């Protein structure tokens, strides 16, 4: 049985979670699939900042749960959804941490969209 290593963010690997100012709109093939003024920006060392949108602000008709799971030692186990809109299907294009690690607990109940596969605007 393998154990997953948990790590705490710190000076060597900082992670911050802050409220996003303004509205975040997510589009797939031009179709709005999420719109919120309650997004969170997660900034993690060595990675571009990611917008986490409350799951309640995502159109539930465009999401399908996936069996895919991944592990991040800083955030915990990620669950995935496929998203379909505008005639486009994006397998595993959305992820979230339902049981996020304590250091990033604020992102629980939020999801992120693969930024190279969707349009995310903040403003």
UniProtKB/TrEMBL annotation:
Domain annotation DUF427: ranges: 24-115
Highest rank taxon of the organism: Bacteria
Family matches, as InterPro entries: DUF427 (IPR007361), DUF427_sf (IPR038694)
Pfam family, one: NTP_transf_9
PANTHER family xref list: CONSERVED PROTEIN, DUF427 DOMAIN PROTEIN (AFU_ORTHOLOGUE AFUA_3G02220)
Full protein name: DUF427 domain-containing protein
């Amino acid at each position: 049985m393998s154990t997953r290593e948990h790590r705490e963010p710190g000076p060597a690997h900082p992670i911050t979670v802050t409220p996003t100012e303004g509205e975040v709109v997510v589009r797939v093939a031009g179709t709005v699939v999420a719109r919120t003024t309650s997004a969170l920006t997660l900034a993690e060392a060595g990675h571009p900042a990611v917008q986490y949108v409350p799951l309640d602000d995502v159109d539930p008709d465009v999401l399908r749960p996936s069996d895919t799971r991944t592990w991040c030692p800083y955030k915990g186990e990620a669950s995935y959804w496929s998203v379909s809109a505008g005639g486009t299907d994006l397998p595993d294009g959305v992820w979230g941490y339902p049981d996020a690690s304590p250091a990033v607990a604020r992102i629980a109940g939020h999801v992120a969209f693969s930024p190279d596969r969707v349009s995310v605007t903040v403003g």
